[in-house]
TrEMBL record:
Record-linked InterPro entries: UspA
Protein's name according to its UniProt entry: Universal stress protein UspA
Source lineage: Bacteria, Pseudomonadati, Pseudomonadota, Alphaproteobacteria, Hyphomicrobiales
Occurrences of domain UspA (ranges): 15-152
Pfam families linked to this entry: Usp
Length: 164
């Protein structure tokens, strides 16, 4: 990735990228990102990634139906997350739906939007570990193109208010 960040240049504003997935802690990342955006006069980009399966030609019609259902579910998840952001900070986040490998899609969204200045994720506080996205990011942390903020999943709204 060689795209220069332009978040603080004239005509631009800083944005944070939040991944809206099926984990319980996505709300913590949205809360933090929304509070941050209000404080810095920035924005929030919400990304939902749809996993795609290998498609066999004879099952293409079924695959198309599955893709449409996944897109509907993605829009519903982004509706919930956008409503939460609006309720927290009276902002309307940008929404992006992508298909494919999460790492590839996250990097592509960052590369295409020069105003994204950080990625905000929330960690699962349970014994099963922080979650697949954070585990994946830990492996790429040294070469990731922007800072990654990891919000502990068990922080309360008031605790996040004190940090953002």
């Amino acid at each position: 990735m060689t795209t220069q960040r332009r978040s603080y240049e004239t005509g631009h504003k800083p944005k944070c990228l939040v991944i809206v997935d099926d984990t319980a802690e996505w709300d913590r990342a949205v809360y933090y990102a929304s509070r941050w955006a209000v404080r810095v006069g920035g924005g929030v980009v919400m990304l939902r990634i749809i996993a795609i399966e290998d498609q066999n030609q004879q099952w293409l019609g079924v695959a198309d139906l599955m893709r449409a259902e996944a897109e509907d579910a993605a829009n519903e998840a982004l509706d919930r997350a956008s409503g939460r952001a609006n309720g927290i900070a009276a902002i309307t986040p940008e929404r992006v739906i992508r298909e494919g490998d999460p790492t590839t899609q996250i990097l592509d969204v960052i590369d295409k939007d020069v105003d994204i200045s950080m990625l905000v994720l929330a960690a699962n506080p349970g014994p099963e570990g922080p979650g697949p996205l954070i585990s994946m990011m830990a492996q790429a942390a040294g070469s990731f193109p922007i800072p990654v903020v990891i919000v502990p999943g068990d922080l309360s709204d008031s605790e996040i208010d004190g940090l953002s």
